[in-house]
Design brief:
The chain is of the alpha+beta class and 236 residues long. The protein has 7 helices and 6 strands, in the order αααααβαββββαβ. GO terms for molecular function: nucleic acid binding.
Length: 236
């Protein structure tokens, strides 16, 4: 989350963005636990700024709303019981999520077709952060650096190795080779109420990419290394 809001290359404003990201993280439903981290910690739903502004609250577990004759020890026992149930449910949800993730990982690791086809557009992982990054950008942080490059088109495959094509201009393309573990599916984002004409089909796009690869100036390069990794140019 934090790398989405910090400055793209310098990362020098991460400390000012941290409180807002923490609030969003703690009050958002997590896919693994199916619960809010705030509730798992305190046993009640949080009061967000919008609740204070409109004098509303989705939670009914506040002390102010508890009956006047309810003693503090009873409220404490009830809160502890509620937390124990939430923790048990969260542990069960985490186990189920881990099983699902393992199933998908094993499927990708052992499948013969590797899940990708010629013409698919994929993200390509960037090289690991190196010590040389400090030379050009002293404020760059490894954990906040870009993890994936712009989408590439698969033009051929040889077992777990794929040849990728990235179009820079009508006269210049980049060819790369990457292992299946370095790739992730890329899904194009489209406006919900778009009134534009339908775009080209995947087959038509692939044909145009292959024609361009035959006529354009080909640059055989290693994976992209952005400025946050210590250099502003690609490695030849």
């Amino acid at each position: 989350m934090l790398q989405t809001y910090v400055n793209k290359y310098s990362h020098d404003n991460w400390d000012t963005q941290l409180p807002y990201n923490l609030l969003a993280y703690r009050t958002a439903m997590h896919q693994s636990t199916h619960e809010y981290p705030f509730f798992l910690m305190f046993g009640r739903d949080p009061r967000l700024p919008k609740d204070l502004l409109h004098q509303t609250n989705t939670s009914t577990d506040n002390l102010e709303e508890a009956p006047m004759n309810l003693e503090m020890r009873d409220y404490r026992a009830e809160t502890q019981l509620r937390l124990q149930k939430a923790w048990a449910l969260a542990r069960e949800n985490i186990k189920n999520t881990q099983k699902t993730q393992k199933t998908w990982y094993d499927r990708i690791s052992h499948m013969k077709d590797y899940g990708f086809c010629i013409g698919d557009r994929v993200w390509l992982t960037v090289p690991q952060f190196t010590k040389s990054a400090r030379k050009e950008n002293e404020t760059a942080v490894e954990k906040l650096a870009v993890k994936w490059t712009s989408p590439h088109c698969i033009i051929s495959c040889n077992g777990p190795t794929f040849k990728l094509l990235e179009t820079l201009s009508p006269t210049e393309v980049i060819l790369r080779q990457a292992h299946v573990r370095q790739l992730r599916y890329w899904t194009e984002r489209r406006p919900v109420n778009s009134k534009e004409n339908p775009s080209l089909t995947q087959q038509e796009i692939l044909e145009e990419e292959l024609k361009l690869a035959e006529t354009a100036n080909k640059l055989i390069r290693k994976p992209f290394r952005p400025k946050a990794y210590g250099t502003s140019q690609e490695l030849t």
